[in-house]
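Two entries, shown back to back:
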Amino acid sequence: MRFKKTYVLLSFSLTLSSAFSYGQIAGESTYQFLNIPSSPRQLALGGKNITIQDDDVSSGIFNPSSINQGMDNMLSVNYFTYFSDISYGSLAYAYRLDNRGNTIHFGFSYINYGDFLGYDEFGNYTSEFTGNESVFSTGYSNKINNTPIIFGANVKFITSSFEQYNSYGIATDIGFFYNDNINDIKASLVFRNIGFQIKPYNEVNEKLPFEINMGISQKLENAPIIYHVTFENLQKWPIGISNPSRIITDLDGNITEENISFFNEILRHTILGVELFPESFFNIQLGYSFRRSEELRILEQRNFSGISFGFGMKFNKLRFNYCHSRYSSASNVNFIGLQLDLNQ
């Protein structure tokens, strides 16, 4: 009974984590926190954006092929809170090895689910316990010879703890980044969370939240605007699941489930983002996740789920980023981040 109760709390925590990651299929894999956006800027562009490639060192956590020399000696710290006591943070740092483009990247992400009260099968209080997960990553990228393509890879060590149950895992991310400098077009393809559990929670090995993401962005020729289009979870089709709360029952008792059209399925894989004044000391980001909007919207109520917006300000060697992301009427996310240039 104690195990069952703890397992329910574990499942609840993982479900909350999957809400961050906008695209994971609940119950199909563990370590869902791995797909939480790594920075306010990424979340402000709709989440899971993989076409950020400048000195934003946090982008290397999510897409190793975005790691570049411009990130040399950059340190970033990011943090947000969600439901109740749940909090998430990330750190990132990059170091240029030489002048030929060889750059290494270090990332750390952590989520704490807060405190829980434990009870036995008779309802008697036992003790308090916590739940938390973390991942440490080491990444590398470099240009493929005689091509405009950059290859990058992350190796990640994962830890997870819920009450007396602990798990460890290892995974890798593999990414490719294409630059068309003539037309200011960038495209990227990333295979995330390829790996396995070294130690499962309870002798049952679970899958990691593997996903394939593809993105494209372009800077407009006569305007200080970059648009981003990201396609998430390309490894799964269809991705939409009929919502039980949208079942229609007629006067004769006939039940009609929600119909998810082919076009709607395509939209659920799509995330849009726009960045204004990207090269200025002050820039603005706007994003929209169709899937988050569709899955978290409430019938006959406008709650603007799926919308994200944020801004960044640069002060000499310090950059501040902020994002507000709409989830539901119950809770929204305010994500803040600082990046420091440690170069003298």
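entry 2 starts here
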Amino acid sequence: MTTTLLFVGKTTDPHIEALCQAYLKRLTHYLPLKVVIIPELRNTKALTPDQQKEAEGELILRAVPTTAELILLDEHGKEYRSMDFAQVMQKKMSSGRDIFFVIGGPYGFSSSVYDRANSKISLSQMTFSHQMVRLFLIEQIYRSMTILRGEPYHHE
């Protein structure tokens, strides 16, 4: 079982990237983890938002095996408290299936990606940049691992 973080576009803010890398390094002690970056589309001014979502959707679906658990980071997804998210992670890891967390492009996901998804989660009702969502997701996965191991990182 591997957990894969699939992101559309790279993180351009060096401060956010440094924090992401710090948490990713910590996570390697807890679970097999990969980060896959799908390059941003070029010449998007000639594409409508729906065309851009479709093109990104094809790339996302090509990168996710049909047997994998596909979890979208989506504003309409389910919100969890950290303790509850840790239990979700435990259940998904126990299934033995590979897990893919996906953060899409600026316009969200195509209908084909939504159709393929096993679930959707939301980190907040607030809107964050995609780069910040990456950091928050990585930190929450790290937090869930420390909760499951009973380590003192999380205080409740």
